[in-house]
Structure formats: structure tokens, C-alpha cells
Amino acid sequence: MNAFKQSILALAAMSAIATVPAHATGLIAGATFPEQIVQELTAVEQYATQAQQLQAQFQQVYNQALSLERLPTQNWPNVSGNLQQLINLIGSAQGLTYATQNTAAGVQQQYGVNGQSYQANLSQWNGNLTSQIQQALNQYGLQTSDFQTQQQALNQVENASQSAAGRMQVLQAGNQISGMLVNQLQGLQQTMMTNGQVEMNAIGAQSGQTTQQNQINQQFLDGSTGAGFY
Fold first, then answer.
1. Would residue 168 count as lying in a domain?
2. CB-based burial, 41-78: b 16+ in 10 Å, e otherwise
3. Of 43, 86, 206, 229, which is most buried, counting CB atoms within 10 Å of its CB?
């Protein structure tokens, strides 16, 4: 078991103790903040793994295309499928950062954790990702305006399949973007893990104080009915 999974399990154990409802809009409606944080960390790990798998598949086909100096037509369905997965993965990753920003804002409001820099980092991550995707598209002669939405991107992939040059363009762009996404998601994963731990510590500390106060209150109530109280 790697260190990241061990950390998630540790946070999951904390989430079983701290059951304060979340008020932020995250991945799970009605989840507690600890549950939300654990789910977000689990999601980013899954996305990072998926990105690595896609990048390996892109690289394999790209190497074959380079050796043949063309992309064989029979390989296009696999490339097209990988491109669709890549487009969907990018959308999911961006959606995750928005959900995580909402969670961080909620934790900050309820527990006083200074999450402004964390939220800014998540927003910056999205901006950097978009910028790098645009650079890759421009590098291979693809119009960024045709990739503004997931549906536009899928349509553009379909259009590219009509010519050998178009197929090679999107393969090259997909290969570069998938490699970049691996690095970006690994960085996002570390950022979320570090800040998630800070958030969980704050939640756990307040939950511990609440539990202690409840025990004191209960002891007082129990004592109020005992002999010698008056």
C-alpha cells in the first residue's frame, strides 16, 4: 500500500469520528466535511492513475506512428476512444477542483481554517491546465476555439478523422496533453493531500473540544441528581 493510500485511510478513520454536516457543495450531497475531503482525495488519485494509463496508450500508438511515418487507419478507433477519455478526464478533473474549492470555503467558514491560498491554488491549477492545453493545440495547428467545451472537442476529434493529416495532428496533441495532465494531476494530488490534512486536523481538534465539553456537561447533569449536590 502506497503512502498516499495510507494517508487517505487515516483521513477516512477521522471522518468516521467527525460527523459535522458539510454545508459546501461538493462531490456528495449531504456528506460531512471529512467525508467530502476523503472522497475528493480518492477521486484525484483515481484521475491521476487514469491519466497515467492514457498517457502510456497514447505514447505506444504515437511511437508506432513515428516509426511508420503515419497513423494506420485501423489504429484510429483506439486513438479516438483514448481522446474521448482524455477529454472527459480533463472535464472531471476541472470539476473536482471546483468542488474542492467549495469544500475548502465551507471548512474555512465553519472551522476558521485559512483556506484562501488553497482555493487560489486550485483556481490557478485550472488556469495553468487550460493554458497548457491551448499551447499544445496551437503547436499542432489546431484551433483552441474549437475545443472550448467537451462537445466541441469531441466534434473536432470526429472531424479530424476525415484525413490522415488530421488524425496525426490530434494524436500528437493528445499525446502531449496526456503527458502534461499526468504531471498536473500529480501536483494537484499532493496539494490536495497536504491541505486536506490541515483541514482534517482542524475539524478533529474542534470535534475533540466538543466531545470534551459534552462530557463535562453530562457529568454536571449526572451530578445534579446525586446526593450532596445541594
1. yes
2. bebbbebbebbbebbebbeebbeebeeeeebeeebbee
3. 86
C-alpha gyration radius of the chain = 24
Number of domains in the chain: 1
The CA–CA distances, whole Å, from 102 to 16, 23, 32, 67, 118 equal 21, 9, 13, 47, 11
Query: Per-residue pLDDT tens for 182-210?
Result: 999 999 999 999 999 999 988 888 754 44
212 in a domain, yes or no?
Answer: no
The DSSP letter of residue 32 is: B
Give the C-alpha separation, 28 to 31, whole Å. 6
Q: Is the pLDDT of residue 212 over 80?
A: no
DSSP state letters, 105-120: HHHHHHH----HHHHH
Contact 141, 171 (CB under 8 A): no
β-sheet bridge partners, residue 32 = 21
Which of 79, 72, 76 minimizes the C-alpha distance to 57? 79
Distance CA 102, CA 26 (A): 6
The torsion angle over the Cα atoms of residues 37, 38, 40 and 41, rounded to 10 degrees, is: 120
Could you tell me if residue 207 is inside a domain?
A: no
Report if residue 130 sits inside a domain.
Answer: yes
One-letter identity of residue 191: T
What pLDDT is recorded for position 218? Answer: 47
User: Domain residues for 178?
Assistant: 3-201
**Stated pTM of the model:** 0.80
